[in-house]
Every structure is written in C-alpha cells, then in structure tokens.
Specification:
The protein is mainly alpha-helical and 294 residues long. It is 53% helix and 5% strand. The chain has one domain (7-288). It has eleven helices and four strands, in the order βαααβββαααααααα. The longest helix is centred in the C-terminal third of the chain and has 38 residues, at 256-293.
Length: 294
C-alpha cells in the first residue's frame, strides 16, 4: 500500500485551485440554478440534481483529496468541515477517520469499480431500459409525449431482446417488463453484473464520487459530473420520449441506423468511464495509504 509523504500546497496555490473549481462548478450548474429561480423543469438535465441529490452548492465545494496539506488554512471555513484535521503544517483530509466511519461503503465502491473495469463491456442493450420503464403504462415519469405512442413503444419492447445489467435501472421496469429482461440484477449481484457499456453505470460514477466525499479531488468529481451529464443526453435522446423540444434530437434505436449511432456513443462513454474508474480507485488507494501513514 503506497504511503507517500503528504504534498504541501501553499495558500496561494490551493486557493487558486479552489477558485478554479468553483468557477467550473458554477458554469456546470448555471442552467439548473436559473431554471429553479424561474420555477421551470427540464426532463433531461434535472435528473442530475434529483436522482443524484447533490446540490449545486455541494458540487462547487472543492477538496484536494487525501494526502494534500493546505498550508495557511487554519482560519479558513474548511477548518470546521467534517473529515478534516489540522496539524502544524496545515489542514488536510482526515482519511483515517473517513475510512473508519464509512469503510463498508468505500469497500463496496472499490470492489464494484474494479470489477466493472475488468469486465468486458456489452454494447447490445440499445438503451431499452428506458422503454421498459414505460411498457404498458398509461402514466409516465416525465410529462413528455412518447415518440411512437404507447402502442408503438410497447411493440418495440416486445420485439427486443432486453438484457439490462444495471439494478438501479431494472428496478424501475414496469411489472409487465420485469420478466422480459434476460437477467435479474440485484444490489447483491451488482458487482458481478455491472459493466462499463451500461450508460447508467457510467452516470453512477458521479454518485460514487459524491459518496467518497473528500477522498475525491475536486477535478475528478467534476469530471464524473461532466460524463454523467453527457450520458444523460444520450439516455433521453434514445428513450421513447420525444425530447427534441429540449435540444435532444431522437436517436431512433428502433432502427438499424439508430442502433449504430447509439453504440458509437456508448463505446466512447465506456472508454471515458473506465478512465474515471481508474482514477477513483487510485484515489481510494491513496486515501488508504495516507491513513496507514497516520
């Protein structure tokens, strides 16, 4: 286990990093914050702030990650933040305390990310999880019309071979759609089924980064949010909903051309997701080494 000596950042350096992070986070959440003020909703992007309940104010909070000492931070507001400790050198993330309190969660995330990265990606689902969530349903989660209508949507589901590997998508299938899935994902078998071709597994990297809290450097957190946002646009463009009015032309996965377009984007997201998995697992390993070093 690596136990490298902590890196000490001068006050001017880490405050610049903090300011850059806040500026980037504010840019990423500007549209959401403006919509909230106007009382408006967005069927594509609101998911990033409702399903993943991390507020814009929390997203802009910068952490250096474990093993980084912030010099001259004694009087800074972060001195009162949870999971930080001070010594003669400055302020740093208390990796040992975080791992002691949330070790089971960290272990699960580390195992899940590692196994997902090792497993061969699958590119044959074509986003049908979203279709299975509205199969034979008169009422839907989004107040957006179905591109093909209810009967046309149901016909696509019935003609498909659905093989969703992601539990948190599968659990929202309609009762009639559940038995149509070739697999039975559960929270227990999630580390055995999750694979990087899954769009929701890619979006969930943001969730895992949030759960790892101060162990994750700010840049990495925002990179996972960036990926989740980009994936969400494909997720809804390829869904049965007509979200063209919100700037997402349909990826018609019921056609050969639409399937090919979906897979091209899916492969790119899998590559980006795997790179982020490597960085998240490395952040966990670094935190463990920092905690072992005291």
């Amino acid at each position: 286990m690596p136990t490298a000596a902590p890196v000490v950042l001068a006050a001017a350096d880490w405050r610049a990093l903090e300011a850059e992070h806040a500026e980037r986070a504010d840019a990423l959440t500007l549209a959401r914050r403006e919509r909230v003020q106007r009382g408006e909703t967005h069927p594509v992007e609101d998911f990033l702030f409702t399903y993943y309940p991390n507020k814009p104010s929390a997203l802009r909070r910068w952490h250096p990650g474990a093993g980084v000492v912030l010099a001259g931070a004694a009087g800074d507001e972060r001195a009162d933040w949870r999971w930080y400790r001070a010594d003669a050198s400055g302020l740093q993330v208390d990796a040992g305390a975080f791992l002691a309190a949330r070790g089971a969660t960290v272990d699960f995330i580390e195992r899940l990310l590692g196994r997902t990265k090792e497993r061969q990606a699958r590119f044959g689902c074509f986003g049908l999880h979203e279709w299975a969530m509205v199969y034979k349903q008169g009422e839907h989660r989004h107040e957006v019309p179905l591109r093909l209508g209810q009967a046309g949507t149901d016909a696509v589901v019935e003609a498909a071979n659905i093989s969703c590997t992601h539990f948190d998508a599968y659990r929202f299938f309609t009762p009639e759609a559940l038995p149509l899935n070739a697999l039975r994902p559960s929270r227990e078998n999630q580390p055995e089924l999750e694979q990087s071709g899954c769009l929701h597994a890619g979006m969930d990297l943001y969730k895992w980064a949030v759960k790892l809290g101060p162990l994750v450097p700010g840049e990495l957190l925002l990179d996972t949010f960036d990926l989740a946002r980009d994936i969400r646009w494909l997720d809804m463009a390829a869904s049965p909903y007509d979200v063209s009015d919100w700037g997402a032309p349909a990826v018609a996965i019921e056609t050969a051309e639409g399937k090919a377009e979906y897979v091209r984007a899916q492969r790119g997201f899998a590559e980006r997701g795997d790179a982020l998995r490597v960085r998240l697992v490395a952040a966990i390993a670094h935190a463990r080494g920092n905690a072992a070093a005291g």
